[in-house]
Amino acid sequence: VKHEEISNELWSAWENVKPIPAFSGRYPDLSVEDAYLIQNILSERAVASGDSICGYKMGLTSKAKQRDVQVFEPIRGFLRGSFEIPKNGTLDMKKRIHPRVEPEVAVVLKSPLSGANVTLREVRAAIHSVLPALEIVDSRYENFSFRLADVIADNTSAAAFMVGSLELPLSPDELRLTGVFVRKNGRIVETGAPAAVLGDPFLSVLGLVKSLATEAKRLEAGMVVLTGGITNSIPLQPGDRIEVVWPGETLAFEAV
Ligand code: OOG
Ligand code: MG
User: Fold this and answer.
1) What is the CB neighbour count within 10 angstroms for residue 242?
2) Could you give the 3-state DSSP secondary structure of residue 108?
3) 32-48 vs 3-16: helix axis angle to the nearest 10?
4) Exposed, middle or buried: residue 107 (CB in 10 Å: 0-12, 13-18, 19+)?
5) How far is the CA of 192 from the centre of ligand 2 (A)?
6) Distance between CA atoms of residues 39 and 3, nearest Å
7) Which long-range contacts (C-beta less than 8 Å, at least 24 apart) are formed by 26-32?
8) Which ligand 1 atom sits nearest the alpha carbon of residue 66?
9) Residue 1 — pLDDT band, cuts 50, 70, 90?
10) pTM for the model
């Protein structure tokens, strides 16, 4: 499989805001291992272009999201520093192909996490804060249509994210049942709770650390982790106003 060639196509699709056909059709043997190698080329290229890797994301950690895209395994991607959008900001739709928004729980770390044998207790001890978040996903593939290896190669559709500042409960029991809803142009379109994410979003962080360990990588202090969409993602059109409402904090933006 031609890792460089595939990563070039994905990079151009992002830069030119032009979707491409999924690779699994053209390269039927494209494996998950190939896909992570391609993703790594994209992350190196992002850093070489002056961007930073400010954290990682997990995807497809809820049943809603898995059904959404018909891929039934959790996946990992990286977050570029330039992906972060300010609270109450705007999302520039001219730079987007077919973006969607989803509510997520973000975790910020106070100490590094590494190793295939990491425990949930170690994950909890390394957490600085649990924060409301939203992610914008924007697949580089035509019709938002892909298979497992495609979406991993495409850095799990990562495009942008927003993180709040009001801390959510650190206790898994409380966090699980802290509700969230999404309003689009004043109407509630999705509701959910962090329990949707593997029953406990900290398990998503655990899975991420184990997955990074296979490449001898780790999470650093200060990194942000998106634990995965809680509900279906919501398609965005120019002019849409989105509010992700958590108890005590609303994350809002306007697509322009
Ligand atoms: C794949 C990325 C999934 C999540 O939170 O589940 C994801 C996609 O939906 O395009 O970010
Ligand atoms: Mg997501």
Assistant:
1) 22
2) strand
3) 50
4) buried
5) 14
6) 9
7) 27/1, 27/2, 29/1, 30/1, 30/6, 30/149, 30/150, 30/153, 31/1, 31/149, 32/148, 32/149, 32/152
8) 6
9) confident
10) 0.98
Continuous H helices in the chain: 3-16, 23-26, 32-48, 63-69, 120-126, 148-153, 172-176, 201-213
Q: What is the pLDDT of residues 148-202, one digit of tens each?
A: 999 999 999 999 999 999 999 999 999 999 999 999 999 999 999 999 999 999 9
Ligand nearest to the CA of 140: 1
Strands (E), 156-212: 158-163, 180-184, 187-192
Task: Compute, in angstroms, the gap from residue 118 CA to the centroid of ligand 2.
Answer: 23
Cα–Cα distance list, 19 to 47, 141, 143, 232, 252 (Å): 23, 5, 8, 21, 27
Neighbours of 3 (CB within 10 A): 16
* Residue at token pair 């509700």: 179
How many Å apart are CA 241 and CA 14, to the nearest integer? 24
With helix as H, strand as E and coil as C, how does 50-92 read? CCCEEEEEEECCCHHHHHHHCCCCCEEEEEEHHHECCCCEEEC
Handedness of CA 79, 82, 87, 90 (dihedral sign): negative
What are the helix and strand counts (H, E) for the chain? 8, 12
Ligand 1 atom index nearest CA of 158: 11
Give the burial class of 158: count Cβ atoms within 10 A of its Cβ; 0-12 exposed, 13-18 middle, 19 or more buried. Answer: buried
